[in-house]
Automatic annotation (TrEMBL):
Coiled coil: none
InterPro entries: Smr_dom, Smr_dom_sf
Pfam families reported for this sequence: Smr
Protein name: Smr protein/MutS2
Native species: beta proteobacterium KB13
All copies of domain Smr, residue ranges: 93-174
Organism ancestry: Bacteria, Pseudomonadati, Pseudomonadota, Betaproteobacteria, Nitrosomonadales
Length: 175
């Protein structure tokens, strides 16, 4: 005896339920308003154009052979606290394998996403540049320049070794 036959024997005769009180909710769901593709592209362009690859700053500081940044008018204690793990990394982005332009867009969108959700402490993995031409760390250098230009960024420090070391930054965003 097959499984189907056994099942039918055990269940017995089945009658479909006739219901007239059902509601078609699917067709009642309002369709989302269309968003022009050009508008979305323009929004993305404005975000990425707000940071420059050629930005030069002397706001980097060096301590214990580790680079860090703190925005003016913020307590230097923030750097120490960020290094010591007082904030837990809530989100992370890995920019490995992206071109410079792709990484810039991804980073700007990621920061915007985190800011909208109230996420303050993030890890940005930029890599050490071992796979770059001439073994130069292209993203590593650019990411730091981009972050300094973002109003939302208060501070960043090199990640501890277990979190990416010289290939990542732990970044603190405004509330």
């Amino acid at each position: 005896m097959s499984d189907n036959d056994l099942f039918k024997k055990e269940i017995g005769e089945v009658k479909p339920i006739k219901r007239k009180d059902t509601v078609d909710t699917y067709s009642q769901i309002p369709k989302p308003k269309p968003v022009a593709k050009k508008f979305l592209e323009d929004e993305k362009k404005v975000l990425t154009d707000s940071i420059s690859d050629n930005f030069e700053s002397i706001d980097y500081f060096l301590a214990r052979d580790e680079l860090f940044y703190i925005k003016k008018n913020h307590s230097p204690d923030i750097v120490k606290k960020l290094r010591n793990g007082n904030w837990i990394v809530e989100e992370s982005i890995d920019l490995h394998g992206l071109t410079s332009d792709e990484a810039k867009v991804a980073l700007v969108e990621f920061i915007s996403y985190c800011k909208q959700r109230g996420i303050r402490c993030i890890r940005i993995i930029h890599g050490k540049g071992y796979n770059s031409k001439n073994k130069e760390p292209v993203l590593k250098n650019k990411v730091k320049k981009w972050l300094i230009q973002k109003q939302e960024v208060i501070c960043f420090v090199q990640a501890p070794n277990h979190d990416g070391g010289g290939g990542a930054l732990i970044t603190l965003l405004e509330k």
